[in-house]
Amino acid sequence: MIKPIRRHAALTTILAALALALGANAPVHAKDPKEIVIGTSAGPYADQIKLGIKPLLEKKGYKVKLVEFNDYIQPNFALAEGSLDANVFQHIVYLNKFATENKLPITELVKVPTAPIAIYSKRHKTLADVKDGTTVALPNDPTNQARALVLLDQLGWIKLRDKYDPVRASERDIATNIKKIKLIPLEAAQLPRSLQDTDYSFVNGNYALASGLKLKDALKTEKISDNYVNLVAVRTADKDKPFAKDIAAAYRSREFLDITNKHFADYSRTDYQLALAKEVAAKPAK
Q1: Taking CA 29 as the corner, what is the angle to CA 38 and CA 67, rounded to the nearest 5 degrees?
Q2: Geometric angle at alpha carbon 146, from 223 and 67, rounded to 5°
Q3: What pTM, to 2 d.p., does this model score?
Q4: What is the mean pLDDT of residues 233-238?
Q5: Are 89 and 43 in contact (CB under 8 A)?
Q6: Most distant CA pair in the chain: distance in Å?
Q7: What's the rounded Cα separation, in Å, for the pair 191 and 201?
Q8: Which distant-in-sequence residues (6+ apart) come within 8 Å of 93 by Cβ?
Q9: What is the pLDDT of residues 159-171, one digit of tens each?
Q10: What angle, 0 to 180 degrees and rounded to 10, lies between the N-to-C axes of helices 242-251 and 254-263?
Q11: Which pairs with CB-CB distance under 8 Å and at least 24 residues apart come from 101-107?
Q12: 109 touches 239 (CB < 8 A)
């Protein structure tokens, strides 16, 4: 039986542990102003920073420290508290909901190339194997669960009620369980491991890649809407500071587009990358 990961008992414990991990015994604002601490989830978004963003920022004289998390809770609290200068792991729907519910002054800085949520299986080679009682794991956080439910509706496995909100869809919106599947909500980080015990599992792109799954092996992949493109978040008060502008410029650069094309070819590109790619393609070869 798969058991959900337990969350830390208190925010103070989380932040204290993070401070120790960062060596942050002194006040956050006393640190080197040219040091940038970025939080992210292990896997592709950390790799994007290591391969593309960190080198570009270091050329500008910054020291870049990367902190990897295994959940979607700690990074926003750590950002708001000041242990991080930026984080990269979430989309705008999750950010807005989390920031509003927890009264956190954090905001979007720039969108990033995104690995889509998709359905995988180690037991079946096709979605046609679905039958009564088929087990399907999906994220238990509301925004990502909504994405999975919309995809299940598109597959014809469930029927969502009329006029459902695709951003807020939940199990309560299931009008008919057409294929009589058994839904198993789990923490996102556990979904790759759940493939040992389920017929099918929805897995967020970052956790899929971090676990060794390949995006091309997915049985069905969502078409990412603007709502679910991942982003860099910063404290609202920092959005116009030089370090934030330099982070955004690094993601928008031709150098990072080249890194994306080479190492993240199956990802959904951002609007600015698509525009830059067209601009590059239109230039005559030298």
Answers
A1: 20
A2: 80
A3: 0.76
A4: 98
A5: no
A6: 61
A7: 7
A8: 143, 167, 227, 228
A9: 999 999 998 899 9
A10: 50
A11: 102/76, 102/77, 104/76, 104/77, 104/79, 104/80, 105/80, 105/235, 105/236, 105/237, 106/76, 106/79, 106/80, 106/233, 106/234, 106/235, 106/236, 107/233, 107/234, 107/235, 107/236, 107/239
A12: yes
Q: Rounded to whole angstroms, what are the CA distances from 103 to 80, 81, 98, 135, 228?
A: 10, 12, 8, 37, 21
In this structure, are residues 205 and 144 in contact, taking their beta carbons and an 8 Å threshold? Answer: no
Residue 86 has a pLDDT of 98
Please tell me whether residue 238 adopts helix, strand or coil conformation. Answer: helix
What is the pLDDT averaged over residues 72-86? 96
Mean per-residue pLDDT for 242-268?
96
Q: How many CB atoms lie within 10 A of CB 265?
A: 11
* 226 or 38, which is more confident: 38
Residues 80-85 have a mean pLDDT of: 97
Alpha-carbon distance 4 to 184, whole Å?
Answer: 11
Encoded amino acid at 36, one letter: I
H or E segment at 19?
helix 11-22
Q: Distance between CA 254 and CA 267 in Å, rounded? A: 17
What pairing do the DSSP bridges indicate for beta strands 220-221 and 118-120?
antiparallel
